[in-house]
Amino acid sequence: MFFFSFLIVLACTQPVTKEVIHTENAPKAIGPYSQAVRIGSSLYLSGQLGIDPQTGAFAEGGIEAQARQALINQRAVLKAAGFRLADVVQCQVFITDMNHYPRFNEIYQTFFTETFPARAVVEVSRLPRDGLVEIMMVAVRKQ
After folding, report:
1. Separation between Cα atoms, residue 129 and residue 23, nearest integer Å
2. At what angle do helices 62-80 and 101-111 cross, to 10 degrees?
3. How would residue 142 be classed by pLDDT, with cut points 50, 70 and 90?
4. What CATH number is given to the structural domain containing 74?
5. Which residue range forms the structural domain that includes residue 27?
6. What pLDDT is recorded for position 113?
7. Tell me: the pLDDT tens digits for 90-130?
8. H/E element holding 43?
Protein backbone atom coordinates (compact mmCIF):
# COMPACT_ATOMS: atom_id res chain seq x y z
CA MET A 1 0.00 0.00 0.00
CA PHE A 2 2.85 2.35 0.83
CA PHE A 3 4.28 1.85 -2.67
CA PHE A 4 1.04 2.96 -4.36
CA SER A 5 0.77 5.98 -2.07
CA PHE A 6 4.35 6.86 -2.98
CA LEU A 7 3.52 6.64 -6.71
CA ILE A 8 0.53 8.95 -6.28
CA VAL A 9 2.60 11.51 -4.39
CA LEU A 10 5.36 11.25 -6.99
CA ALA A 11 2.90 11.78 -9.86
CA CYS A 12 1.41 14.83 -8.15
CA THR A 13 4.81 16.44 -7.61
CA GLN A 14 6.07 16.10 -11.18
CA PRO A 15 6.34 19.44 -12.97
CA VAL A 16 3.66 20.15 -15.54
CA THR A 17 5.02 21.23 -18.88
CA LYS A 18 3.46 24.14 -20.68
CA GLU A 19 3.66 24.13 -24.48
CA VAL A 20 2.86 27.17 -26.61
CA ILE A 21 0.98 26.31 -29.80
CA HIS A 22 1.35 28.34 -32.98
CA THR A 23 0.17 27.74 -36.53
CA GLU A 24 0.39 29.81 -39.69
CA ASN A 25 -3.11 28.49 -40.54
CA ALA A 26 -4.66 30.92 -38.06
CA PRO A 27 -4.08 34.67 -37.72
CA LYS A 28 -1.03 35.82 -35.79
CA ALA A 29 -1.71 37.17 -32.32
CA ILE A 30 -2.43 40.90 -32.40
CA GLY A 31 -1.09 41.37 -28.89
CA PRO A 32 1.23 39.81 -26.33
CA TYR A 33 -0.42 36.38 -26.13
CA SER A 34 -0.19 32.89 -27.64
CA GLN A 35 -2.70 31.31 -30.01
CA ALA A 36 -3.00 28.46 -27.51
CA VAL A 37 -1.23 26.83 -24.58
CA ARG A 38 -1.27 23.10 -23.89
CA ILE A 39 -0.86 21.79 -20.35
CA GLY A 40 -1.05 18.03 -20.17
CA SER A 41 -4.21 16.88 -21.92
CA SER A 42 -5.82 20.34 -21.79
CA LEU A 43 -5.60 23.05 -24.44
CA TYR A 44 -6.47 26.69 -23.73
CA LEU A 45 -7.17 28.66 -26.91
CA SER A 46 -7.03 32.44 -27.03
CA GLY A 47 -9.86 34.29 -28.68
CA GLN A 48 -10.03 34.18 -32.46
CA LEU A 49 -11.64 36.84 -34.59
CA GLY A 50 -13.06 36.23 -38.05
CA ILE A 51 -9.80 37.19 -39.75
CA ASP A 52 -8.53 35.32 -42.80
CA PRO A 53 -4.96 34.25 -41.93
CA GLN A 54 -3.84 34.62 -45.56
CA THR A 55 -5.07 38.18 -46.14
CA GLY A 56 -5.18 39.59 -42.62
CA ALA A 57 -8.64 41.00 -43.40
CA PHE A 58 -11.98 40.16 -41.84
CA ALA A 59 -14.09 37.63 -43.71
CA GLU A 60 -16.69 39.53 -45.72
CA GLY A 61 -20.36 38.82 -45.16
CA GLY A 62 -21.23 40.06 -41.69
CA ILE A 63 -21.62 38.03 -38.52
CA GLU A 64 -22.07 34.73 -40.36
CA ALA A 65 -18.82 35.05 -42.31
CA GLN A 66 -16.83 36.27 -39.30
CA ALA A 67 -18.22 33.53 -37.04
CA ARG A 68 -17.41 30.87 -39.64
CA GLN A 69 -13.86 32.20 -40.07
CA ALA A 70 -13.28 32.44 -36.31
CA LEU A 71 -14.34 28.80 -35.94
CA ILE A 72 -12.16 27.76 -38.89
CA ASN A 73 -9.25 29.56 -37.21
CA GLN A 74 -9.87 27.77 -33.92
CA ARG A 75 -10.11 24.44 -35.73
CA ALA A 76 -6.67 25.14 -37.26
CA VAL A 77 -5.18 25.88 -33.83
CA LEU A 78 -6.76 22.73 -32.41
CA LYS A 79 -5.33 20.67 -35.27
CA ALA A 80 -1.85 22.15 -34.77
CA ALA A 81 -1.98 20.88 -31.18
CA GLY A 82 -3.32 17.45 -32.13
CA PHE A 83 -6.88 18.16 -30.96
CA ARG A 84 -10.27 18.18 -32.74
CA LEU A 85 -13.45 20.19 -32.38
CA ALA A 86 -14.94 17.13 -30.66
CA ASP A 87 -12.40 17.69 -27.84
CA VAL A 88 -13.75 21.18 -27.07
CA VAL A 89 -15.46 21.28 -23.66
CA GLN A 90 -16.07 25.01 -23.26
CA CYS A 91 -16.48 28.10 -25.46
CA GLN A 92 -16.67 31.76 -24.57
CA VAL A 93 -18.18 33.91 -27.29
CA PHE A 94 -18.09 37.69 -27.41
CA ILE A 95 -20.38 39.47 -29.87
CA THR A 96 -20.92 43.17 -30.40
CA ASP A 97 -24.68 42.89 -30.98
CA MET A 98 -26.92 40.34 -29.26
CA ASN A 99 -29.26 40.62 -32.25
CA HIS A 100 -26.61 38.51 -34.06
CA TYR A 101 -27.15 35.65 -31.60
CA PRO A 102 -29.57 33.58 -33.75
CA ARG A 103 -27.42 33.94 -36.88
CA PHE A 104 -24.28 33.10 -34.89
CA ASN A 105 -25.97 29.93 -33.59
CA GLU A 106 -26.79 28.81 -37.14
CA ILE A 107 -23.08 28.85 -38.02
CA TYR A 108 -21.90 27.48 -34.66
CA GLN A 109 -24.05 24.37 -34.83
CA THR A 110 -22.55 23.41 -38.21
CA PHE A 111 -19.15 23.05 -36.50
CA PHE A 112 -20.32 21.19 -33.39
CA THR A 113 -22.50 18.31 -34.50
CA GLU A 114 -21.74 15.98 -31.60
CA THR A 115 -22.33 16.88 -27.97
CA PHE A 116 -22.19 20.66 -27.73
CA PRO A 117 -19.54 22.19 -25.44
CA ALA A 118 -20.52 24.31 -22.46
CA ARG A 119 -20.78 27.90 -23.66
CA ALA A 120 -21.36 31.51 -22.70
CA VAL A 121 -22.22 34.28 -25.15
CA VAL A 122 -21.63 37.83 -23.95
CA GLU A 123 -22.40 41.09 -25.69
CA VAL A 124 -19.49 43.53 -25.57
CA SER A 125 -19.24 47.13 -26.69
CA ARG A 126 -16.23 46.58 -28.93
CA LEU A 127 -13.73 43.94 -30.06
CA PRO A 128 -10.17 44.30 -31.38
CA ARG A 129 -10.00 45.72 -34.90
CA ASP A 130 -13.78 46.28 -34.66
CA GLY A 131 -14.62 42.63 -35.22
CA LEU A 132 -18.16 41.37 -34.75
CA VAL A 133 -17.37 38.13 -32.88
CA GLU A 134 -14.50 36.57 -30.93
CA ILE A 135 -14.40 32.95 -29.78
CA MET A 136 -12.26 31.41 -27.00
CA MET A 137 -12.12 27.67 -26.31
CA VAL A 138 -10.90 25.05 -23.87
CA ALA A 139 -10.34 21.51 -25.12
CA VAL A 140 -9.47 18.31 -23.27
CA ARG A 141 -8.17 15.21 -24.98
CA LYS A 142 -8.42 11.70 -23.59
CA GLN A 143 -5.03 10.48 -22.37
Report:
1. 21
2. 30
3. confident
4. 3.30.1330.40
5. 17-140
6. 82
7. 999 999 999 999 999 999 999 998 789 999 999 999 999 99
8. strand 42-49
